[in-house]
Design brief:
Layout lengths: L5 H10 L2 H14 L3 E6 L17 H7 L7 E5 L2 E6 L4 H7 L9 H6 L3 E4 L3 H9 L4 E4 L2 H10 L5 E3 L1 H9 L3 H24 L6 H14 L4 E2 L4 E4 L20 E6 L1 E3 L2 E2 L2 E6 L6 H20 L14 H10 L41 E4 L2 E4 L4 E4 L2 E5 L4 E3 L8 H8 L2
The structure holds manganese (II) ion.
Manganese (II) ion (MN) binds next to loops.
């Protein structure tokens, strides 16, 4: 029932967001006190080619909540100005109506008091530069654009500051990530019911996508990875075209994006309902590594380094000290990727390199073992909130014990 009302709840949450956008802009301006800030939103033709439609540059969205192409944000000590393209009625005939700079809704949504036509940007930039020397921005393209407009002014990079801000989620962001997690858990459970010998991987992908979209997610956080048998060992396998057989492992890495916030969840299940003895042996090792890493999550702990006590090293040591391959070698070399990343507006969210865990971060914990020789690829990935003194697993509702998975597959 909670999940069914998700779609409506998301709209309400998004509409009440403008105070948070304003607070973020203030915090950014405070963090870069000797300059003005200029950010360019994504243009019409740009964007992530993995996405099926316009995708706003995430820093821009984080600061404004604005999702139409061609916008510019200018922050100086006296004002926050959002610049929007004026109406292109020819284009709107094809793609639908868009808000223009004169639309009062823009102020409500973004909390920007001043909204001007994009053609005014250059003259307003000059006004702002009378107050401060330096311009902070994000991205090489933005820097080139600003260098052309203000060639003598020093340029600063706001990316690290924004990453530091974005890593620590607000209560509202944690709530939205939990909603994305809940919809994604429901999608995985539905996919488990669907998966069966003789079915194609893309049919399982269709179930995943349809369920989280039905529950209020606007799109996939990334293209679903559904790999069975020999396909389970490829980390970013997205062809999803194989027909699965009884006895295969089926690795599903899929998550929805709800109100801009993403989920990232992986489970590996046995096609036909029962792990073989060897599959289960390896599964238990991955699960043990994941539990060891999640148990270690708390503020101050390192994530991806090889240092003793880091999440990566804990998972690696567990894997390398349990089980053997067919040649009698230890299994550490089959754990071939990172243990964790930040999750937020982006599925691999902004991160300050080398930052330790801190309260309010939402991270993945995702050990895996991939042994092509045995057609065994197993990854278990959950979303974990770093709390004041430990961790809360946002995706705990999705079973991960081998016995619980087999029970859920009974029908
Ligand atoms: Mn991940």
């Amino acid at each position: 029932m909670r999940l069914i009302s998700l779609g409506l709840a998301l709209c309400a949450a998004a509409a009440a967001a403008s105070p948070e956008y304003h607070a973020r802009r203030e915090a950014l301006a405070k963090a870069e006190p000797n300059g003005i800030i200029v950010l360019f939103g994504a243009g019409e033709a740009e964007g992530d080619e993995l996405r099926s439609r316009f995708y706003q540059e995430p820093n821009f969205y984080y600061l404004t909540g604005w999702k139409q192409p061609g916008a510019i944000l200018l922050i100086d000590p006296k004002r926050e100005v959002l610049f929007l393209p004026t109406h292109n009625l020819d284009r709107e005939k094809w793609t639908g109506p868009e808000a223009g700079p004169d639309d009062p809704k823009v102020r409500d949504l973004t909390g920007c008091d001043t909204v001007l036509p994009a053609a005014r940007f250059e003259s307003e930039l000059r006004v702002s530069l009378e107050q401060r020397q330096k311009i902070y921005t994000v991205g090489d393209e933005a820097k080139a654009r600003l260098r052309a407009l203000a060639p003598l002014r020093p340029l600063g990079d706001a990316e690290a500051t924004l990453a530091r801000m974005r890593m620590r989620k607000s209560p509202r962001e944690i709530d939205l990530l939990q909603r994305a997690a809940d919809a994604t858990v429901a999608a995985h459970l539905a996919a488990w019911k669907k998966a069966a010998p003789g079915m194609f991987e893309y049919q399982v992908a269709a179930t995943l996508v349809s369920v989280y979209m039905d529950l209020g997610c606007e799109r996939s956080a990334y293209p679903p990875i559904v790999g069975s048998g020999p396909d389970s060992v490829y980390l970013h396998y997205q062809r999803n075209e194989r027909r699965m057989d009884r006895g295969d492992l089926l690795l599903m890495d899929a998550g929805g994006e709800c109100a801009g916030y993403t989920a990232d969840v992986t489970r590996t299940i046995p096609v036909g309902g029962k792990f073989t003895k060897r599959q289960r042996e390896i599964y238990e090792i991955v699960l043990g590594a994941q539990k060891a890493a999640i148990n270690a999550v708390k503020p101050g702990v390192a994530i991806g380094t090889r240092a003793a006590g880091s999440l990566y090293q804990i998972a690696y040591d567990y894997i390398d000290s349990h089980g053997k391959d067919v040649h009698g070698d230890s299994l550490g070399k089959y754990f071939t990727h990172g243990i964790s990343h930040q999750i937020g507006l982006e599925v691999h969210d902004a991160a300050e390199p080398g930052a330790a865990l801190a309260e309010g971060m939402v991270i993945s914990v995702e050990p895996g073992i991939y042994i092509p020789e045995e057609n065994i690829g197993i990854r278990i990935e959950d979303m974990v909130l770093v709390t004041q003194d430990g961790a809360r697993v946002l995706t705990a509702a999705l079973p991960r014990e081998a016995a619980d998975i087999e029970k859920a597959l009974l029908r």
